[in-house]
Amino acid sequence: DVKVTQSSRYLVKRTGEKVFLECVQDMDHENMFWYRQDPGLGLRLIYFSYDVKMKEKGDIPEGYSVSREKKERFSLILESASTNQTSMYLCASTPGGGNQPQHFGDGTRLSIL
Amino acid sequence: RKEVEQDPGPFNVPEGATVAFNCTYSNSASQSFFWYRQDCRKEPKLLMSVYSSGNEDGRFTAQLNRASQYISLLIRDSKLSDSATYLCVVISNTNAGKSTFGDGTTLTVKP
User: Are A89 and A77 in contact (CB under 8 A)?
Assistant: First the structure.
């Protein structure tokens, strides 16, 4: 079974802090994704990566950056956290080649005070 | 118009009922289709893929209608444990292979 592990289930940070959310997958997947999910807005893609050191903007990249130094790890960074970034953050991965379903981590519920 | 649209519901049905959800997609180049299940405050989990010929997994049946650009999920003999939000997912080769998620349909099965 694919295992996607997110570093924290719950996280509380303060406005202006730099926040790191970590995601690790153990299936040698090429593609990794970061989403946020808010009530009534569904899943929104923040950033994704098709390979090490590669990154692509998703639909809502503003206020976020990512890092993929190793194939198994994809980090989401909130450069200066704001209250409107309070959300559920979900990491997912798929093998390369497209047309494969995504496998999600447990999610991180982030609160910015 | 959203690329993938679902009726948000909620669908409230009694145990044992049959319930069906539809999901429409706008990109005719879409290639792959899936249904996910998401429980409250949990991550989405793959329920089943949707194949052109239709496919069944126990009480769940998924169908694809390419001409009308929709997929469906039928749940027979609903159980209390089927209560969840069901997300349809579409992958198109013209969208760099990214998945497009519907916003989900909420199902509540009542005793």
Answer: no
